[in-house]
Amino acid sequence: CRVLYARTFGTPPGTAPGGPRQRLRRKEQLLVVAREVASQCQLLQSSLGRPSSPQLPQLPDEPMSLQDAPGGLFQMPPGDPFPERVTVVWLSVLALAFALVCEPQENLSLAEITLRRLAPRLLLSLRLLGPGAEVLLRPDAADGLLDRLLPHGQMLFLNERFLQAMDREL
């Protein structure tokens, strides 16, 4: 399990942004979420009778539909690693997983829709480094996508026409 890219929006109350302790804490939180998402993906794959493969198949050249891509959500209780209860919405695509960590007041249906629209576009910004599962995400491309689809961390109701126009720009 490896985190290719992570982005945090906002700063929890009572924390100094960017301090070494805060960065270490964020990294620990990300690793806990990543391990749990990997576990959920493996559990789902085994329950569907599909072997999970660490090998990344051929990456798509155009955005693909992820309507039937396996995914789910789970809650992490308050305490460790997050000070308050959060819900993680995740999506498994090829040999990768995408996740959004949502605060209690956030719309989980909108989070799933956002993730399904974001994931195929992030797939296009991956580069294969060699045979097997070695990939590299271009952070500038990921930042641009997140700035458009999740401005300041706010999930938006987006229509297909807007997404098509955005795809043409990128």
The number of helices is: 4
The quaternary organization reads as: single chain
Rg, Å, rounded: 16 Å
Shape, please?
Answer: globular
The structural class is alpha+beta
* Strands, total number: 5
Side by side, the strands of the main sheet go: 1-2-3
Largest pleated sheet: 3 strands, antiparallel
Strand portion: 15-25%
What count of domains describes the coordinates? 1
> For the residues shown, what is the average pLDDT?
78
Contiguous low-pLDDT stretches (5 residues minimum) are: none
Element pattern in H and E = HEEEHEEHH
Q: What percent of the residues sit in helical stretches (DSSP H or I)?
A: 25-40%
Distance between the termini: 29 Å
In short:
This protein is of the alpha+beta class and 170 residues long. 39% of the residues lie in helices and 16% in strands.
Structural account:
It is a single chain. This protein has helices at residues 20-47, 108-124, 139-149, 160-169; strands at residues 71-76, 86-93, 96-102, 126-128, 135-137. It is α+β, with helices and mostly antiparallel strands and 170 residues long. The chain has one domain (20-169). α2 packs antiparallel against α3 (139-149).
